[in-house]
Amino acid sequence: MREEARAGRQEPHAARRALEERRAELSLEPAYLTRERRLRDVQALRRAADVPFFRHGDEILDLGEAHVASALLPDPPASNTESVLERQRGPTQPRGMRIERHRAGAVARLQAAGAAAAATLRLVGARLREGMSTADIDGMVREHTAQQGARPSQLGYHGFPATVCTSVNDVVCHGVPGPTTVLAAGDIIAVDVTSELDGYHGDTCTTFFVGQPSAEARHVVETARRCRQAGIDEVRDGARLGDIGAAVEALAQAEGCHVVREVGGHGIGRRMHMPPHVPHFGRRGSGRRLRSGMAITIEPIVTLGGPGLIEDADGWTLRSADGALAAQFEHTVLVTRRGCDVLTL
Ligand code: MF3
Ligand code: CO
Ligand code: CO
């Protein structure tokens, strides 16, 4: 299945361009970044002064893409020690990578942006119905975000063609909304809303049930929600990123679920994706230390299957290779002395 994803690698660009042309009204971003900023061909930008990079195996990554640390990279050779270490520790992050600590003024803006994103996600949750398309959800998010004087951060981000990610059933993340994806009773759908308000971003995701869920659907969704909480419970000044990852992974495993490793949380502030990358697996006591004033997201994706992802021809939608149900929950949190403040409640 990995092979399939790789074989399709040339195609997505053409497919995405076609999609972008069809949905030209959505691609209004002046800073429209297109495919050059995608992981797989970021090399070309290596000399651009404003784009920070870090190494991941043999690849140079754009930090803006730290969220998808390795989803689109070829598999590392299995026998290579470095890659084994990397799988245990998550993507390499140079020790000196600066993680911003927000002061009072910035914190107020982060709070407002978080509240805006949360309000939009609540509205979607209240209106979701069987028979609705994911394009309808995109419309709601666009309208409600604008009503709050905010901007949908995801629209045009590295060329993403919509205001929101809508990930149905076996879609792990980055589902692109469209009129032909219609919700049916028994579906689960992760809706990931990111809003920019007054120069700061808030990022949050909930997986909703459409109609009555199956026992499996209930299990994967509740496990993902509890995994997010297990991660949040680790956050405080002095805690390490590995503490979050270890707690999330342990709970998922105890519940017989798989945690997706290719996508992680991230720092957040004046950009949607900032250092650090926040893996949802790892070793307690490892990784960078959190300090009060840092803002990060915790956004575990949990599946009922095994590892392996497939990318759709749209160049965005990532599915579980085995077709297993996937669920995701995300909050933006601010690290404090004693714990953290959840900004997207
Ligand atoms: N909101 C997503 C996250 O949690 C970002 C998706 S990037 C997009 O980090 F381009 F796919 F929208
Ligand atoms: Co996020
Ligand atoms: Co998000």
Model description:
By secondary structure, this protein is an alpha+beta fold. It has a single domain (2-92, 100-342), classed as Alpha-Beta Complex (Creatine Amidinohydrolase), CATH 3.90.230. Helix content is 28%, strand content 21%. It is built from seven helices and 17 strands. The protein has helices at 2-7, 11-22, 81-89, 104-127, 134-147, 215-232, 241-254; strands at 53-56, 59-62, 151-152, 165-168, 171-173, 188-197, 200-209, 258-259, 265-267, 274-278, 295-298, 301-303, 309-311, 318-320, 326-328, 331-335, 340-342. The strands form six sheets. Strands 3, 4, 6 and 7 form a four-stranded antiparallel β-sheet that branches. A hairpin with a 4-residue loop joins strand 16 and strand 17. Helix 6 packs antiparallel against helix 7. The longest helix has 24 residues, at 104-127. The radius of gyration is 18 Å and the shape is globular. The N and C termini lie far apart (37 Å). The chain binds 2-amino-4-trifluoromethylsulfanyl-butyric acid and cobalt (II) ion (2 copies). One cobalt (II) ion binds next to loops.
List key phrases describing it.
345 residues, alpha+beta, Creatine Amidinohydrolase, four-stranded antiparallel beta sheet, three-stranded antiparallel beta sheet, 7 helices, 28% helix, globular, disordered N terminus, binds 2-amino-4-trifluoromethylsulfanyl-butyric acid, binds cobalt (II) ion
